[in-house]
């Protein structure tokens, strides 16, 4: 399955990531509203990288589970990391860390998974299924 | 969801035909149900767009783009609204915690104005925010001496309030009302210098009043000068001192001075929040306070405090800019 990777270095890369994500969502078969949600989620992840971790990448791929297609987006950065993932998802983060905006992203997709280590970076994986 | 979609389309088509007020009202009720079912704003727009496509066939391409734009923007709008709501919830939690903290502070710092035979004492202390950075402490041994400290932590709110608790316990450990004011300042200075953050300073005016000899002895650490009214001379004097703020340097020495209070004399001790307003307009608050004190000197000390507060509040358009504290000590006529 084809996998698209976008390095986030400049602000323009945020738009590139959104564009690729939207095309992929459309190709998989998501409707307009879900396309908008997926794109917004990708935008939030890319913004987190750009503003708080300086560099990192977004990986977009199709995924399938029990015959249902979906889209998986992974954001990988080498930023400062998140101390308490649970708190971040409940919205109790400092607004200046890579955890900003994650509670919002969580509302847009079906699942979110965060792995993070202080000082080393953060990996966020989100999935949305075709309903 | 399918049900709600169908209802929406029905109500919309009715409205397009008749523009009836009742259809709008039904539409409002439908939105209520949609919110309960967690239907997001972008879903509503999508339903609306689909309905139009059903009614009129293919919409013009420009209109379709416009709807897609609206859907996109509303996804983000919905997110931001939710973020905002969760901030409001958090703010409310903090407000409740602050209320509790302020209550605890009030209990900790509560200090009754002593009643003595030969003096009349009044006090008012109003915090700008919930927690007070000013504090008034009385010591009274009922026989000989009355001690009074008026303090102001440089800074406001919670940090100032936490620092103030320590000043209070410093004053408590000094126990006796007959301590020399200069000694009180030296001890407190050491305590604050050692234990409080470098950015925290405290100004303090300490006075000891000998109830037999009527000698008023005072010392000040960087505090707003108090006012002394000599009734026989009809004159106000500033009780000025060059003492350094508490907490800047260790081992600071403070000097003390004294005066004798006679019948109808009074002393006004205040914090800089009382005098520090409208300075840029060239307004002289100290002169105003003197004027007010003179015209209300027939009142008792507490009424004088209240009146001065009310009058100064009026001059600031009923909006404090700093914690506000005034203590008035009047020599009673009876003795």
TrEMBL record, chain A:
SUPFAM superfamilies: ATPase domain of HSP90 chaperone/DNA topoisomerase II/histidine kinase (SSF55874). GO terms for molecular function: ATP binding. InterPro entries: HATPase_C_sf (IPR036890), HATPase_dom (IPR003594). It holds the Pfam family HATPase_c_2. Keywords: ATP-binding, Nucleotide-binding. Residues 16-128 form the Histidine kinase/HSP90-like ATPase domain. This is ATP-binding protein.
TrEMBL record, chain B:
Keywords: Hydrolase. Signal peptide: none annotated. Pfam families: RsbU_N, SpoIIE. The keyword Hydrolase applies. Gene3D superfamilies: KaiA/RbsU domain (1.10.1240.30), PPM-type phosphatase domain (3.60.40.10). One of its GO terms (molecular function) is phosphatase activity. Residues 116-331 form the PPM-type phosphatase domain. It comes from the Bacteria. InterPro entries: Bact_Sigma-Reg, KaiA/RbsU_helical_domain_sf, PPM-type-like_dom_sf, PPM-type_phosphatase-like_dom, PSer_Pase_RsbU_N. This is Phosphoserine phosphatase.
């Amino acid at each position: 399955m084809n996998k698209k990777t976008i390095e986030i270095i400049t602000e323009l890369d945020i738009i590139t990531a959104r564009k690729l994500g939207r095309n992929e969502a459309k190709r998989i078969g998501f409707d307009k509203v879900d396309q908008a949600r997926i794109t917004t989620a990708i935008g939030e992840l890319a913004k987190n990288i750009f503003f708080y971790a300086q560099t990192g990448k977004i990986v977009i791929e199709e995924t399938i589970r029990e015959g249902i297609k979906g889209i998986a987006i992974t954001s990988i950065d080498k930023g400062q990391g998140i101390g308490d993932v649970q708190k971040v998802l409940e919205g109790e983060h400092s607004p200046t860390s890579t955890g900003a905006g994650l509670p919002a992203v969580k509302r847009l997709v079906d699942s979110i998974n965060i792995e993070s280590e202080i000082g080393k970076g953060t990996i966020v994986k989100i999935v949305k299924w075709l309903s | 969801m399918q049900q709600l979609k169908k209802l929406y389309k029905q109500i919309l088509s009715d409205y397009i035909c008749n523009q009836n007020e009742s259809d709008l009202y039904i539409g409002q009720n439908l939105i209520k149900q949609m919110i309960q079912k967690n239907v997001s704003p972008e879903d509503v727009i999508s339903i609306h767009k689909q309905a139009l496509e059903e009614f009129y066939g293919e919409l013009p391409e420009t209109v379709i783009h416009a709807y897609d734009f609206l859907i996109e923007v509303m996804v983000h709008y919905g997110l931001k609204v939710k973020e905002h709501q969760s901030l409001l919830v958090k703010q409310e939690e903090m407000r409740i915690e602050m209320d509790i903290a302020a209550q605890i502070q009030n209990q900790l710092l509560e200090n009754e104005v002593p009643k003595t035979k030969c003096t009349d004492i009044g006090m008012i202390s109003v915090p700008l925010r919930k927690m007070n950075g000013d504090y008034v402490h009385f010591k009274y041994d009922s026989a000989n001496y009355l001690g009074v400290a008026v303090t102001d932590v440089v800074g406001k709110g919670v940090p100032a309030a936490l620092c103030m608790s320590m000043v209070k316990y410093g004053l408590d450990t000094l126990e006796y009302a007959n301590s020399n004011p200069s000694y009180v300042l030296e001890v407190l200075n050491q305590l604050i210098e050692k234990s409080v953050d470098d950015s925290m300073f405290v100004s303090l005016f300490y006075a000891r009043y000998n109830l037999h000899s009527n000698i008023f002895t005072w010392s000040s650490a960087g505090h707003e000068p108090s006012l002394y009214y000599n009734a026989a001379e009809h004159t106000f004097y500033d009780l000025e001192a060059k003492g350094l703020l508490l907490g800047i340097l260790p081992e600071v020495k403070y000097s003390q001075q004294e005066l004798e209070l006679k019948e109808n004399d009074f002393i006004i001790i205040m914090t800089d929040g009382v005098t520090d307003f409208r300075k840029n307009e060239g307004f002289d608050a100290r002169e105003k306070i003197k004027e007010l004190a003179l015209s209300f000197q027939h009142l008792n000390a507490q009424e004088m405090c209240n009146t001065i507060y009310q009058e100064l509040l009026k001059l600031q358009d009923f909006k404090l800019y700093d914690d506000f504290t005034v203590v008035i000590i009047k020599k009673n006529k009876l003795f």
